[in-house]
Amino acid sequence: MAKQQPVPQLRTAGGIRYELTRKRVKNLNIRVREDGTVAVSIPLRTSAEAADRFVAARAAWVQQAQARARRRSLQDARPLPDKETALAHFTAMSDKVYPAFAGVLGGQKPTIKVRSMTSRWGVCHMAKRQITFALQLYNQPEAAQIYVVVHEYCHFLQPNHSPAFWAEVAKLLPDWKARRNLLK
Ligand SMILES: [Zn+2]
């Protein structure tokens, strides 16, 4: 019977450095922390070699999660802009997208607003003909910002996230998925 190790063991598999802990768990678990370090927990009787294989099989996924964590920490280090700066920025971006939606909007530009939001990047209020962008979006990659602008505009065509909605997004941004993946 394997002995429980209270201190995580540092191991490397598939080019991934990770901390291995044995716990009273049923399955092997892997987690990439906010700081990019990797924690793996395995059942008491599972061998370290099985953990290595488990990690190696998920190396690509771990690397992606680590890249995301790196981007996130860089973005968090950047201060948020003031509201006027962000509003001018998103209004200019919105003005470029607007012509494609001028018809459905009856030739009237939507009102653009900015406020601090941590749970979403944008909100479209169709009845008010208004889009609100998260101040935090300003620090995201520009390619992803454009995706959010197009996404919110497409809600003037489709109020939900139905396949028809995504088809509208794809018409303007065929690479919308790659752009969305840039968002933290
Ligand atoms: Zn949406």
Overall description:
- Keywords: Hydrolase.
- It comes from Faecalibacterium langellae.
- This is Metal-dependent hydrolase.
- By secondary structure, this protein is α/β, with parallel strands linked by helices.
- The protein folds into 2 domains: 9-77, no CATH class; 83-181, 2-Layer Sandwich (Zincin-like).
- Helices cover 40% and strands 20% of the residues.
- The protein has 6 helices and 7 strands.
- The protein has helices at residues 48-57, 59-77, 83-97, 142-154, 163-172, 176-181; strands at 9-13, 16-23, 29-32, 38-43, 111-115, 122-125, 130-134.
- A 4-stranded mixed sheet has the order 1-2-4-3. It has a 3-stranded mixed sheet with strand order 5-7-6, with helices on one face.
- Helix 3 (83-97) crosses helix 4 (142-154) and helix 4 (142-154) crosses helix 5 (163-172).
- The structure holds zinc ion (ZN).
- Residues 151, 155, 161 line the site of zinc ion.
